[in-house]
Design goal:
The chain is an alpha/beta fold. It contains six helices and six strands; from the N terminus they run βαββαβααβαβα. Helix 2 runs parallel beside helix 4 and helix 4 packs parallel to helix 5.
Amino acid sequence: MRVVIFGASGLLGRSVMRAFGDMTVTGTAYSRTAGGLVAVDATSADAIARLLGRVRPDVVVNCVGERRPAVWAGAPERARAGNVDAAGLIAEGARRCGARLVHISSNYVFDGTAPPYRPGSLPNLLNAYGRWKLLAEHAVRRACPDAAILRLPVLYGRVRFAAETNLTEIARQVASGAPVGSTAR
């Protein structure tokens, strides 16, 4: 089985790469391409098509996204491109090459007041990140109706820098005496 993982340089992407074990896996990244990752701009339909045409994957996993509000708060166009448009382009690429798509979303599409949530539960967004993830889900469904969309909770694991996961970022803020607020989400 051939697998392409978009966003393989992040905390989730690295874990997903390991999960596919001995299969033929191609991981992509935008700028952090150490460890054999392929540089691909996930906001470029041409770059996505070139990679998928070369690899001809059976499965495509989309782990692309930016959850840190400080990174995109002042650049909503960039946030939309990386969190929403890229998801639609990857979905379109997967559909065109006949690959099964697994799109990673977030439980941030819910406000947490009415669990348990099911696939048909109505979203109730609390923040911009939840909005971007929900818009990405809609883009994926339009481009690739049979995609599997996984809504994950908070991520944790071996990090390369504190802000890579909410838990270590919050721990860093508490240890420094800094206030912990909505930007830690």
